[in-house]
Amino acid sequence: MFSIQKIGPDQIDTLIYIAASTFRDAFYHLSKPEDFEAYASAAFTSDNFLSQLNNPDSQFYFAIWDDKPVGYLKLNFNDAQSELQEKNGAEIERIYVLSEHQGKAIGKRLLEFAIETAIEKQMEYVWLGVWEKNPNAIRFYERHGFKIIGKHTFPFGESKDEDFLMKLEL
Fold first, then answer.
1. Crossing angle for the helix pair 135-143 and 106-120, nearest 10 degrees?
2. Residue 39 needs a FRET pair 20 to 30 A away by CA distance; which of 29, 160, 162, 166 works?
3. Minimal CA–CA distance to 61: which of 27, 106, 24, 1?
4. What is the DSSP code string of 78-110?
5. Given this model, what pLDDT does residue 132 score?
6. Residues tagged active-site
């Protein structure tokens, strides 16, 4: 019923569809439409995703439910990390699940998979950024042992949002 599958370049269209859909569902209603569209038009392109997929220090995985991709995870190591970039740490850059599949513990399974992958790679910690105005996500990560260690600015169109940086020691 549920599995996690590494994503290859031949699955780029499905990845972009899920990435754009989940991001829109999560943030469109909370954003200025012009900021959202400016961000989305640059972020959800084939060129952008192919360059990330082809980076050996980034890994993408689909969450598969009943043989269909319903979410995805992106992990970054080494210089692919958006911040920190320490060799002993891994970034969980994205965990997203299609809205109709939320409430099935898929996000939790993706998070556990990310942590297991980091442990297998002998990382000392995993970290992520989460929007400071997303209390549900913050609580989710705190329940799994993550602690807020700082903030960074996330450019979003003309706006500048603040993200908490959260870290889990392994």
1. 50
2. 166
3. 106
4. GGGSSS---TTEEEEEEEEE-GGGTTSSHHHHH
5. 95
6. 141
